[in-house]
Amino acid sequence: MDIDAWVWWLIGAVGLGIPLVLTAMPEFGMFAVGAVAASAVAALGGGIVAQVLIFVLVSVALIAVVRPIAARHRAGQAGHASGIDALKGRQAVVLERVSASGGRIKLAGEVWSARTLDSDQVFDPGSQVDVVDIDGATAVVM
To answer: With the C-alpha atoms ordered 63, 64, 67, 70, is the resulting torsion angle positive or negative?
Structure first.
């Protein structure tokens, strides 16, 4: 039984797809796409040199283009704050007088208990305050 070259390239693409799924390393997927491109060249009658050249060119091109985009995307998400970290640094409106002993503010559309960072500060209703920290369910403001 003689198997055509394009079938071998497809088998190689599947073989490269398995570690992609198991390790979540996108480089294997890029090599698999290169193998599919080489399979197409083989199916169209291209020689072994053309097949290998297309495999290398497509794989390297994908790695050169996709990896930097993925790295920028990953780096951009690392700086994305969520939860209480996203509330730090935001401004809020005082609803009930806020002092070191407590008070209420409206922060991100919700009513929060609050206290001042400095014990001698006091904010009256309607004042704008900056949230510097979240301590449990209490916003620390200044």
So the answer is: negative
